[in-house]
Design goal:
- It is built from twelve helices and twelve strands.
- It is elongated, with a radius of gyration of 33 Å.
- Helix content is 55%, strand content 18%.
- It has two domains: 184 residues, no CATH class; 169 residues, no CATH class.
- It is of the alpha+beta class.
């Protein structure tokens, strides 16, 4: 029998038993749709998190106090041996291939502007923050570059400026941060969330003032922007030599943005694979359904098999016929599952724009191919059973 005839006969058999075929394929449809939806959410989160990290750029190095392997933007454990100080940041700025640096001190304080007050995040930083963190000043200017004792200037985040001053311009206004008074010299452009940190609900002050405000001796970290054409190993060695010469030992940790990205990428890839495996459990249920239905079909169609064998159909033809039916069921179920999953993902993207979803085509293709393999595997045993039936015994069953 020719293959087009086999395929045509298989689909006619499936269509003639609509309810049975639909119930059989339903398990695969649900399983494939689950894989598509879960992997799309996993891939969306993957892309979202990496995009959050790359907003700062990829040619960044963070210097954290203490010899640790902790990954993060800030908040590393403060070393009790020798803290990172502003002088360390100034010395690193003079190194080859270092474009700009910014010390970082993070805290939370009460902000007062006239009769309005609220608590918010306070970042003690340097003048190069717009360049290092890829931020833009909306109005006014950012903190000036001042060595020694910096002036009490402050730059407000977009949201904080709106809440404290409304439609009025905050430039030149006096505000109180904790117990100290500062003059507002700028407002940042709207930025939104970055790695879960609301950059718009933040106030920037000089790092030296932040150390005084929070009564600290050590910087939380130093961020360095280096030349993207420079070899990262060479830059790291220069930073280590400089700080070891100043501290007498390696009591600090260097974390590159690429290291964080690679670490996050591997973790999120495993997460996406895990949710794909979770969704694939439904495919196992679908394979059991196909195996059961095809086994029943062999029992119900013994006389048909006997007739085919009596008119000259070979065992191979009978085997191919039943295997083709199982494959047709799995292909139909897999295709419907893919279309259903993609449709649900599109609906989720439209209804819940805050939920990051992205179609993971590699997983979708893999799930569809798996459905075909399930059809083949589940159809082999019934097909062998059908092919082994003797013509006379099969006809006698009529």
């Amino acid at each position: 029998m020719r293959y087009p005839d086999l395929i045509s006969l298989s689909y006619r058999t499936i269509v003639s038993h609509k309810l049975r075929s639909i119930l059989t394929a339903l398990g695969l449809i649900i399983g494939i749709a689950a894989v598509v939806i879960l992997t799309s959410i996993g891939r969306g989160i993957h892309t979202f998190v990496l995009a959050e990290f790359t907003q700062f750029g990829t040619n960044l190095i963070g210097v954290h106090p203490g010899k640790t392997t902790t990954f993060g933007v800030s908040g590393a454990t403060i070393s009790t041996v020798r803290p990172l100080v502003l002088a360390d940041a100034l010395s690193l700025r003079k190194l080859e291939n270092i474009i700009a640096i910014t010390p970082v001190v993070q805290g939370n304080a009460r902000i007062e502007a006239g009769e309005k007050q609220r608590r918010t995040n306070v970042l003690g930083v340097g003048s190069a923050v717009p360049m290092v963190w890829k931020l833009r000043v909306g109005t006014g200017r950012f903190l000036p570059e001042e060595e020694g004792s910096p002036r009490a200037f402050a730059v407000l985040g977009y949201k904080l400026a709106a809440e404290l001053f409304g439609a009025a311009s905050p430039l030149g206004q006096r505000i109180r941060i904790g117990s100290d008074r500062f003059r507002v010299i700028g407002v940042m452009e709207k930025k939104g969330q970055m790695i879960g940190f609301d950059m718009d609900d933040t106030i920037y002050i000089p790092a030296a003032k932040a150390l005084e405000l929070f009564d600290r001796e050590s910087l939380m970290e130093i961020n360095l922007l280096y030349n993207s054409n420079a070899a990262i190993d060479r830059v790291e060695k220069a930073i280590k030599r400089n700080l070891i010469a100043r501290h007498g030992r390696e009591d600090f940790t260097l974390i590159t943005q690429n290291q964080m990205l690679k670490k996050m990428d591997s973790i999120l890839s495993v997460l996406t694979l895990a949710v794909a495996a979770l969704g694939s459990i439904s495919l196992l249920v679908g394979s059991v359904g196909i195996l059961t239905i095809m086994t029943i079909a062999v029992s119900e169609r013994v006389s048909e098999i006997g007739l085919l064998r009596a008119v000259g159909a070979e065992r191979r033809t009978i085997f191919q016929l039943f295997l083709c039916e199982a494959l047709a069921l799995s292909a139909t179920g897999g295709l419907c599952g893919v279309l259903l999953g993609i449709s649900i993902v599109r609906v989720l993207d439209a209804v819940l724009p805050a939920l990051p979803v992205e179609l993971a085509w590699a997983y979708i293709v893999a799930a569809f191919m798996l459905s075909l393999l399930i059809g083949i595997a589940a159809g082999v045993v019934p097909a062998i059973k059908a092919a082994r039936l003797e013509p006379l015994e099969a006809l006698r069953a009529e």
